[in-house]
Design brief:
The chain has two domains: 2-84, no CATH class; 142-280, Vaccinia Virus protein VP39 (Rossmann fold), CATH 3.40.50.150. By secondary structure, it is of the alpha/beta class. The strands form three sheets. Strands 8-7-6-9-10-12-11 form a seven-stranded mixed sheet, with helices on both faces. It is globular, with a radius of gyration of 19 Å. The longest helix has 15 residues, at 49-63. The chain has helices at residues 2-7, 49-63, 80-88, 130-142, 158-165, 178-190, 220-230, 250-259, and strands at 12-16, 39-43, 92-95, 98-101, 114-117, 148-152, 170-175, 196-199, 211-217, 234-246, 262-270, 273-280.
């Protein structure tokens, strides 16, 4: 995840290609089948380059003992990686009224647009992955002004920020990764919204009281864990929006929702990915 690369001193991280789960928990679930090729680029300063390469190779062997990914190292001018971000990341319509744009690009918003300013960087969640797009679509459908919102595994903070821009009375964004917590807070400020961010293992740092909307764009195994505990935090009739679900794990996730007092009310599909809206009964 981005957190591992940041811990090693990366100044920027970007991903291209492949059916990769943009998990808000800052972990990517690489495809179990197929021939998808995913390229993850991380940019480091030149100090200690030899030791760094050795460290990264060892870390890849730990993470992928059966088939460590290929690692290549290239020296580039200091300005190149930042320009690469700018060249590859342009404003786009993520879902419905939501348009995502980087800070360096002017976007001529239409009257009904909701513009989210998110720069690519250390926390994944720029809105271009299918999971994030579908979560934004479901949020726009079920969110009512004045809702109290909880975003579990916030990553870049994009979903909580979107909720505030839709008129939420409050949004609390939680993430296990301290880098994501910091980035989400910075993104909230850049978007002119007040959103509290906290480091948390799933719901461990959530406030008491009930939420109208709970968001979780993570991965199936962690969602199943979360599903066991989420109902007491959700208002009767409240909506729980889940993303980061690969097609093969959809039945596991929906079964765990039903077992824990939820009615599945909608499932969205985009390529190999699924997002679910459930209501507490």
């Amino acid at each position: 995840g981005a957190g591992n690369l940041q811990d090693a001193g990366a100044g920027g991280v970007e991903m291209q290609g492949g059916s990769v789960s943009e998990a808000a928990s800052d972990e990517y679930a690489l495809p179990e089948t197929g021939t998808d090729v995913v390229t993850v680029s991380a940019y480091f300063g030149e100090a200690g380059a030899d030791a760094l390469e050795e460290t990264l190779r060892a870390r890849l062997c730990e993470m992928f003992p059966d088939a460590p990914p290929e690692l290549s190292v290239e020296t580039v001018p200091a300005t190149d990686w930042n320009e690469n971000f700018r060249r590859n990341f342009k404003a786009f319509r993520a879902a419905g009224r939501f348009v995502v744009k980087p800070s360096w690009e002017e976007y001529p918003a239409e009257a009904d647009d909701i513009v989210l300013q998110i720069d690519p960087g250390m926390a994944f969640g720029t809105g271009d992955h299918e999971s994030t797009r579908m979560c934004l679509e479901l949020l726009q459908k079920y969110m009512q002004p004045g809702c109290r919102v909880l975003d579990v595994g916030t990553g870049s903070g994009i979903l909580g920020i979107a909720a505030m821009k839709l008129g939420a009375s409050s949004a609390l964004a939680l993430d296990y990764d301290p880098v994501s917590v910091r980035v989400a807070a910075e993104n909230a400020a850049a978007n002119g919204v007040v959103m509290e961010t906290r480091q948390s293992d799933l719901l461990s740092s959530a406030d008491g009281g009930l939420y109208d909307i709970i968001l979780a764009n993570i991965v199936a195994d962690i969602l199943i864990r979360l599903n066991r505990d989420v109902a007491p935090y959700l208002k009767q009739g409240g909506v729980y929006i889940l993303g980061g679900i690969i097609e093969e794990r959809l039945d596991d996730v929906t079964a765990s929702l039903v077992q824990n007092g939820m009615d599945v009310i909608e499932i969205l599909s985009m390529n190999d990915w699924r997002a679910v809206a459930a209501r507490k009964h």
